[in-house]
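Q: I have two molecules that I believe assemble together. Could you output structure tokens for the complex as a whole instead of separate predictions?
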Amino acid sequence: MITNAYYAQEGHGPYELIDIGALDLEEGGRLRSCKLAVATFGTLNAARDNAILVPTWYSGTSKIIEQVYIGPGRALDPEKYHVVVVNQIGSGLSTSPHNTNGPHGMAGFPPVRIADDVRAQHRLLTERLGIERLALVVGGSMGAQQTYEWAVRYPDMVQRAAPIAGTAKNTDHDFIFTETLVDAITSDPAFNGGSYAQSADVAAGLKRHAKMWAVMGWSTEFYQAGRPAAIGFPTLREFIDTFMTGYFAPMDPNDLLCMAWKWQRGDVSRTTGGDLEAALGRIKAKTFVMPVSHDMFFPPADCQREQALIAGSEFRPLQSIDGHLALFGTDPAFLQQLDVNLKALLATPA
Amino acid sequence: MITNAYYAQEGHGPYELIDIGALDLEEGGRLRSCKLAVATFGTLNAARDNAILVPTWYSGTSKIIEQVYIGPGRALDPEKYHVVVVNQIGSGLSTSPHNTNGPHGMAGFPPVRIADDVRAQHRLLTERLGIERLALVVGGSMGAQQTYEWAVRYPDMVQRAAPIAGTAKNTDHDFIFTETLVDAITSDPAFNGGSYAQSADVAAGLKRHAKMWAVMGWSTEFYQAGRPAAIGFPTLREFIDTFMTGYFAPMDPNDLLCMAWKWQRGDVSRTTGGDLEAALGRIKAKTFVMPVSHDMFFPPADCQREQALIAGSEFRPLQSIDGHLALFGTDPAFLQQLDVNLKALLATPA
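A: Yes, here they are, computed for all two components at once.
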């Protein structure tokens, strides 16, 4: 366990840490006291049927969801809905390698799967928050992986699902991309097998990791259109060294690796013996599949193949040359398209 | 200087090493004795007007050009044309960091630019081989960068040009992608600032570099379609560890870095004070611009922007889910399309 001020309430709160007890993990490990960092917006109505769940993505927390996606007049409107944002295990806010004591902390943290997160969230909602029905589960990237897992695993609880820029079963290409991210960190001698005193020790590895995100996270058109300057970084060097590197630099390496391990292995078909069609066939939620047009690692074609296996679903790609990291909210037109689609989905009878 | 059997005649020959003398470099350095490794096919006719120049790409040599692109009945038909394949500086066959003695060898090798290669090739052709006119310059990737540089720099000598999967001016996105490749090698402690005893010492860095090529070199559709298995590697792990890693493992790290530095800075507009339109306006060659449909770092859109600035040129994208590395010759349909286009180009009056 080490201290990392980046994840504190000051920067990422307010969030509530809710202990859901011991969580047995699919890979055989156990989180003895699984704490989920939860941020809620709006009020659960008397019918208890206006809850929306938003799981988080790799490196993201409830803070960016709050700042970019939630607000009056938005699809995720706290005046209408009770929005529950749950930070994933390993996010740095919830139980994570860096904040776990003893031999199971840091590099000793057990491998966690997307399904472990979803089971933990299910327990949180049903046992602690009194929520038995979800009007919508919506998430981007790893949030989409969790969204799919929710819709497959708890089909009677999820009324609507909106996986954005993510897949139900990860692809080989994406697995290898993520492996290069992992390698960037673990190859830094200062990573030292996961034993370091602070994130800054692993600055070189985290910088290489950030640079790979610069290559794959946006798109070729993003650079061609001069978008780095448009979002405030006049030179390519500033964009890489200030924005991309600065974004990842304070994060905990072991936490990122915990999430990356999950991301690589996202696969709803584990519940159906490897049969993806059967797994997606379980979904009862009205589902809008929303890839980003220029996403380089969760490309529309990979998402459309899965959408075709979900009854009554709709393929609603979002146009943005910002690619995968349009999720950051850099492209107002992307957010507008997303809101239009989410509002349409929420208006669809369950 | 170190010995590296990978680049020997046994594996990459036959090629002739031709010393073109001292070459002053744009960045201020000097190659005291610039040797170009040249492989020729077919015979120069009496009119001396049937020569085709093929410059090489990053990591590639004249051998793959011979094996995949040249043959009777092919567009590059040695029964009709005198095909001259020139291995680029830093390729490992021509003058390169690993085969240069003294303080200017290895990490002391001076920075070389695409334009330096093209000037060296121009001297080779005009002063040593008696070639004053080129029926065609054709190359892929860094070979395309050299093709553009040839057409801009020596417009009266190049009758036809076929840049495949490459640009006249490199993009920011591609610059950063290449930087991640560079980082993968230089971050290996065994790279040791460029002082190592053999490539195998830098195996870890070269493997990370190979894995990044696996992500960006092919395409998401390539993996989705199970192409790794189709080309002989049943599992993703074998594809990465045997094919991709095996391909790059014997190459010299300093040589790769020499080429990468050039690649990052390819820019024909250096001849016109940064005015790309003016530079491409110099081209007199009949030009077919041929990106690969699924190329992740020289995407069709980036190539089409340049094509629009070349008088009388044609945009002829080649369809292949093998992406950039379709250049390897893994997709017969790609080679067929290429040959159709090159034959059409060669049939066009100059």
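A: One point stands out. Residues 332-347 of chain B form the longest helix (16 residues).
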